[in-house]
Amino acid sequence: MEWINKYQSRIITAQEAVTNIKSGDRVFLTGNVSVPHQLLAALVGHAPNLENVEIMQALTIGAQDYAAPEMSGHLRVNTIFVSANVRKAVQEGRADFTPVLLSEFPLLFKNNILPLDVALIHVSPPDEHGFCSLGVEVGLTKSAAESARIVIAEVNQKMPRTLGDSFIHVSKLNFMVPVDYDLPDLAMSEDGPNEITKQIAGYCAELIPDEATMQMGIGAIPDAVLKHLYNKKDLGIHTELFSDGVIELVEAGVLTNARKSLHPGKIIAGFVIGTKRLYQWVNDNPLIELHPTEYVNDPFVIAKNDRMVAINSAIEVDLTGQVCADSIGTKMYSGVGGQLDFIYGASRSKGGVPIITLPSTAKDDQLSRIVPTLKPGAGVVTTRNHVRFIITEYGIADLYGKSYRQRAQALINISHPNFRDQLTADAKALNYI
Length: 433
Fold this sequence. Notes:
Layout: H1 2-9, H2 14-17, E1 26-29, H3 37-46, E2 53-57, E3 75-79, H4 84-91, E4 96-97, H5 105-110, E5 118-123, E6 131-133, H6 141-147, E7 150-156, E8 163-164, E9 167-169, E10 175-179, H7 195-207, E11 213-216, H8 220-226, E12 236-242, H9 245-251, E13 267-272, H10 276-282, E14 288-290, H11 293-296, H12 299-302, E15 308-313, E16 316-318, E17 323-324, E18 327-328, E19 331-332, H13 339-348, E20 353-357, E21 361-362, E22 367-368, E23 370-371, E24 389-392, E25 395-398, H14 404-413, H15 420-429
Parallel strand pairs: 1-2, 1-5, 2-3, 3-4, 5-7, 7-10, 8-14, 11-12, 11-15, 12-13, 13-14, 15-20, 16-23, 20-24
Antiparallel strand pairs: 6-9, 16-17, 18-19, 21-22, 24-25
Helix pairs in contact: 7-8, 14-15
């Protein structure tokens, strides 16, 4: 088989591979738990020989060496989602943030708006036909790998073989670095949900009908919601990502995907994050299909799922319904991610349920997260025109079709009791009520 000869002839070390990155190149770095750690470490080691290399990425999990101060002038991160390992660099101005909907990020490469010189990716070993799977991160990586001039892949014996639109042939890989290490374990809620999280999850579950198709974001609240769904019937999944909590619902016969109006019988996602148990479960599992993010997160694709439920989180919400989820004032904290993609998609779905969740307070009840106005410089991720359900531990506010006066009253009712009088006074001062 000819592909075997191509495969063997393109095997090199990580140190050799990164010498193909030149000064001034734009490099895509695959992310989530699929970060190619050996290639990234080799790039950091080679960085003193390079100038002005731009690293395009979204959420990455792992070392922050490549965004360290000593990389200035050599490597500069340009991220569309501010993960913890690059947050300090972004906030100090040593790294860049580019706002873009997650559904449109791969299109920047595909449409040559941000041409890619190199893509650093992470794949499973090839099958008998020479196809590698992109494994646990297909969403952002597939189009980047298809668009880059040079593709360098870590080929990991421990990378699951996921199905769907997740394959790339070895003939499309310019260089391959064989590795054998475990993917990072990342439990969504190691300590279990607290009481506030449980209360919010319970309110979310009240809004989820039988035969719903669900999007679950990152964090304790979406994970806790899954634990409230064992009395539901024929649920399905169409989501940016999922984690371990889905497994139990499948095994309990609750999450069947049988009544989905789009891709019936299949869990559809862009990537997965979780533990070794999850990675083993998704391996070669025909129940699960991973697809590019420009498909999974397309609001008009999402809307084809009847009874689409989207659950996302916020940092603060003002009395008109503006949702800030990406920054604390002017300081970038995360990014738009897929929130607006799914909130809008769910709102356009027949019987759809778009939900924003947040605890009512921050800093040990010292600050209300329901606020008269957003902090100066705060980013509006979900606009007041897109928002529908807001949930705190004090209940559900349905803002759809409501006036400023009605919205302010509904949001005050689900704020922490300690802040309701002040919020009422603020609403009056703003002539909302």
